[in-house]
């Protein structure tokens, strides 16, 4: 799904950026330009970042022995 219409950025691209080390909106903006024009996508982009980080933490916790 397209999250940022101004730059044509999808949720998949945001998730990949988070997996690549973007941990907040500022990092994501530097890497993908999300939220740098009209800003309407910022809220959902933050939600996707949060979801992806939580999912990664869950996976790590599952393997914690």
Structure classification:
mainly alpha
How would you classify the quaternary structure? single chain
Q: How much is the radius of gyration in Å? A: 12 Å
CATH architecture: Orthogonal Bundle
**Major sheet strand order:** 1-2
Quote the average pLDDT: 93
> At the first level of CATH, what is the class?
Mainly Alpha
- Helix % is 55-70%
Number of domains: 1
Overall geometry comes to elongated
SSE topology string: EEHHH
The CATH topology is: Arc Repressor Mutant, subunit A
What is the CA-CA span between the terminal residues?
36 Å
The strand count comes to 2
Q: Strand portion, in percent?
A: 5-15%
Largest sheet: 2 strands, antiparallel
Unreliable spans are: none
CATH superfamily: BFD-like [2Fe-2S]-binding domain
With helices defined by DSSP (H or I, 4 residues minimum), what is the helix count? 3
Cofactor: [2Fe-2S] cluster
Organism: Saccharobesus litoralis
Keywords: 2Fe-2S, Electron transport, Iron, Iron-sulfur, Metal-binding, Transport
GO molecular function: 2 iron, 2 sulfur cluster binding; metal ion binding
